[in-house]
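In response to reviewer comment 3 from the previous cycle, which asked for concrete evidence that the modeling workflow produces usable outputs, we include below a single protein chain processed end to end. The sequence was submitted unchanged, and the resulting structure tokens are shown without manual editing.
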Amino acid sequence: MWQPIGTENYDVQLELAVITDGNVSWSSGPCRRVVGGWVHCDTHEFVTQLPTHWRASRTACPFGCALAPDTPPPGAAPPPTDS
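The workflow returned the following structure tokens.
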């Protein structure tokens, strides 16, 4: 589920998007918030778009940034559901 920019934590791996009138016009991931903006986890290059929304990324980050809270590690079994 997409969340508005401004509610995210720093140095947590996230997917980013620009959403206008309910439509995703641009998305990127995985990225992380740093002082001064956003960087791509894979390349460490700054993100040039101004994202409006974020969501937890399920892709492993090779350089040690953390997964968003409550995000299972890649390949983990989904949590059991109450039936």
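The chain has one domain: 3-64. We consider this sufficient to address the reviewer's concern, and the full set will be provided in the supplementary archive.
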